[in-house]
Amino acid sequence: MRHGKKIAHLGRKTPHRKYMLANMACSLIEHKSINTTVAKAKALKKYIEPLITKSKSDSTHNRRIVFSYLKNKYAVTELFRDVSVKIGDRPGGYTRIIKLGNRLGDNASMAMIELVDYNTIYNTANDTTKKTRRRKKASKSSDTLVEDAAPVVEEAAPVVEEAAPVVEQAAPEIENNETNQSDSDKKETDL
What is the pTM of this model? Predict the structure, then answer.
C-alpha cells in the first residue's frame, strides 16, 4: 500500500531524482517548454512551481534557496530576471501539461510541460484583459465594437475593386507570350 507516500520516486534513488528534476527545471526555464513523460512532468510541476513563487520577490535569500534546488546560476538569473517579471501578477499555476500520446519505442505516455505565459498560441491580446461576469456591461461594449467595425469594412471594399483591373491588364500579356511561343514552335516544326 502507498499510504502517505506523496513523492513520485520515478524509479530512481533520491540523489539521482533530485539532480534529474533540477536539470529538467533548468531546461524548462531556458527553453520555456520541454517534452517528457507524464509522470516526470507531474513531478517537475510540483518541483518548479514553488521556485517560481520564490522568484517573485527578488532577494539574496530567495536567490540562494532557488540556487540550492536548481544548481545552475544561469537558470537562476533568467528565472529572477525574465520569468518572474512576466509571471508577476499570476497567483499560481505557472506551468501547463499537455499530453502528446505514446512514445514509439516503449509506448510511454508523453507530455509537454510549458510555462503558461510564454505560449503565444493560447495567449492572445484579448486574454490579457480581465474578464468580468457582468453581462450588461459586456453587451454594451460589444454593441459599440460592432458599430465601430462597420465603417472599416466599407472602406476596405473599394480597395479590392481597384486591384481587380490590374489583374485583367496582366492577363493579355501572358496570352500574347503564349501565342508567340506557339508561333515559334510552329516555325521550328516546319523547318
Answer: 0.62
